[in-house]
TrEMBL record:
Coiled coil: none
Record keywords, A-Z: Membrane, Transmembrane, Transmembrane helix
Signal peptide, first to last residue: none
Annotated SUPFAM superfamilies: Bet v1-like (SSF55961)
InterPro entries hit by this protein: Polyketide_cyclase/dehydratase (IPR019587), START-like_dom_sf (IPR023393)
Keyword set includes Transmembrane helix: yes
Organism ancestry: Bacteria, Bacillati, Actinomycetota, Actinomycetes, Micrococcales
Residues passing through the membrane, by range: 134-154
Name recorded for this polypeptide: SRPBCC family protein
Keyword Membrane: yes
Taxonomic superkingdom: Bacteria
Length: 160
């Protein structure tokens, strides 16, 4: 496959970049899929839909019916893990949003985006990406479930 080309729905190779502060790690994941960017964005923008595409999300409390900056809530994960969440920014036009999640002593800073793309077969689709920053052990542990969630986000239709 030519450089820069991706299979229709396969995850791309993650990009690892050392970031500030020292000892933290930044990881960017990108996936492509056939769902339209508008539909994928709505699945991000409505926290009540997160459980449908996030296999590790057990519930979302307090983030409201739609993402907006300065909203605080909680994301309930597997094995009783609870992350306090603060939405830092939402740009509906650019289809990007960022937030911080804290569970115990660990904080992750996450930035998400959704873009319309032309897939390898010429069909319209979406690229969803996530940049996550935090303690290396937490960032690396989060990489697999995050990739699975992004893949479901752009590929699997959800009953609303």
């Amino acid at each position: 496959m030519a450089p820069g080309r991706h299979a229709r729905t396969s995850p791309s190779i993650a990009t690892l970049v050392e970031s500030r502060p020292p000892g933290s790690l930044s990881l960017t994941l990108r996936v492509r899929g056939p769902l339209p960017a508008e539909a994928v964005w709505e699945r991000y923008a409505d926290p009540s839909l997160w459980r449908a595409w996030g296999p590790y999300i057990r519930g979302v409390d307090g983030l409201g019916p739609r993402l907006r900056a300065a909203t605080r809530g909680r994301v309930l994960g597997p094995l009783g893990v609870v992350a306090d969440a603060v939405v830092a920014a939402v740009d509906e036009d650019a289809r990007t949003w960022s937030w911080a999640a804290r569970s115990g002593p660990f904080v992750l800073r996450l930035t998400h985006g959704v873009e319309s793309v032309v897939l390898r077969d010429g069909a319209s689709g979406t690229r969803a990406w996530l940049t996550v920053r935090g303690a290396p052990v937490v960032v690396l542990a989060y990489a697999l479930p995050a990739t699975l969630a992004l893949t479901a986000l752009v590929r699997r239709r959800v009953e609303q």
